[in-house]
Amino acid sequence: MASKAMAKAMTITYKLGTALYINITNRCTNRCVFCVRTTAAGVADGLNLWLEREPTVTEVLRDIQQWDTAGLSEFVFCGYGEPLARADATIDICRELKKSYAVPIRVNTNGQANLLYEQDITPLLAGLVDAVSISMNAKNAQEYQAICLSEFGEKAYASMLEFAGKCKQYIPVVVLTVVDIMPPADIRACREIARQVGVDFRVRKLVD
């Protein structure tokens, strides 16, 4: 189990199925209307992922070490925030995980990191991140902004798609995702956009 000392203060890591999830920040450039952190008491069995503070890289790695990783299918950076809001920490953690575990690493992201840092960070993920899941959520910029409320406004949508395209050069698996509450016609439109970008596409449940 996760360390008792850290669990009393905050949940840094948690397990869903055969994946170990890593929760490193509550910061996010979006305020999605359907986000689980505003629509539910918690994930899984009500697990609260609000952090009292952002854990250090050392704390994250120590927390991971408390788990039995035998049979683990992947590490997933996903919690109550945007992991790439802490890109340096994400990269440092990935680098250490690659040294110690033969387990794939996935990052769930809103794809706005290049806007946030005003530079292309995708080359920094090469050899460290095995898969990236990018929340697409809409078929155009106007609808995206209406439901995701990005601090970058409507330009966030084009930047997100561009981020997905750049990730293809460095990350083996790149997936654009939408939630299953979208109308079928919108889902088809998003699937076509993903095809044009040249990445995979997945429809996810409203609460994963």
TrEMBL record:
InterPro entries: Aldolase_TIM, Radical_SAM_PqqE_MftC-like, rSAM, rSAM_sf, rSAM_TatD-assoc
NCBIfam families: tatD_link_rSAM
Gene3D superfamilies: Aldolase class I (3.20.20.70)
Chain ranges of the Radical SAM core domain: 14-208
Keyword Thylakoid part of the UniProt annotation: no
CDD domains recorded: Radical_SAM (cd01335)
Protein name: Radical SAM enzyme
MF terms (GO), sorted A to Z: catalytic activity; iron-sulfur cluster binding; metal ion binding
Keywords from the named record: Iron, Iron-sulfur, Metal-binding, S-adenosyl-L-methionine
Organism: Sporomusa termitida
Keyword Iron-sulfur belongs to the record: yes
